[in-house]
Design a protein that fits this description.
CATH topology: Porin
Structural class: mainly beta
Distance between the termini: 28 Å
Order of helices and strands: HEEEEEEEE
Shape: globular
Number of strands: 8
Largest sheet: 8 strands, antiparallel, barrel
Helix content: under 10%
Strand order of the largest sheet: 1-2-3-4-5-6-7-8
Low-confidence stretches: 1-6
Radius of gyration: 15 Å
Number of helices: 1
Length: about 150
């Protein structure tokens, strides 16, 4: 299994513009820690600063799940940044908060470009199936992210 994951991720890393690590936390009645590896590639549409994103990660505890998400986003700013994206997502475990394996992953991050190579962000992630099937209270995570630009 590990060889398959490395085989799939290696080409993605070669073509990505940015590689990031996100970590966060959610606390309803049970604390859940969140972690993912994030790849981004600029895909501007008529000089509009959009990007394609791929994230692989998960969260822990009895309501935990692993996920893979692919989506599109937009970047606003140069030194101070706002990044917003929406992804289609597959989660491995349904929970009382997420009733389907296919979900939407919405993310907004506020960041600062430390130099030409690194950027730091804080933000929020929301997983939801958009009301396709109940229950659908969703999962929300407050995150920190460190991105390395290539």
């Amino acid at each position: 299994m590990k060889r398959k994951v490395i085989f799939i991720l290696f080409p993605i890393i070669l073509f990505s513009k940015s590689l990031g690590i996100e970590a966060g936390v959610c606390k309803y009645s049970i604390k859940r820690n969140f972690f993912d590896v994030l790849y981004e590639k600029n895909t501007p549409i008529k000089n509009f600063p959009t990007y394609t994103t791929l994230a692989i990660g998960g969260w822990e505890n009895k309501y935990g799940s692993d996920f893979i998400a692919l989506g599109e986003g937009v970047t606003i700013g140069n030194k101070f940044l706002i990044k917003m994206d929406i992804s289609l997502c597959y989660i491995t475990n349904t929970t009382k908060h997420l009733s389907t394996h296919f979900e939407f992953k919405d993310r907004i991050r506020f960041g600062y470009k430390l130099n030409k190579i690194y950027s730091f962000f804080i933000g929020w992630i929301h997983f939801s199936n958009g009301g396709i099937k109940e229950p659908n209270t969703g999962e929300n995570f407050i995150i920190m992210c460190l991105m390395r630009n290539f």
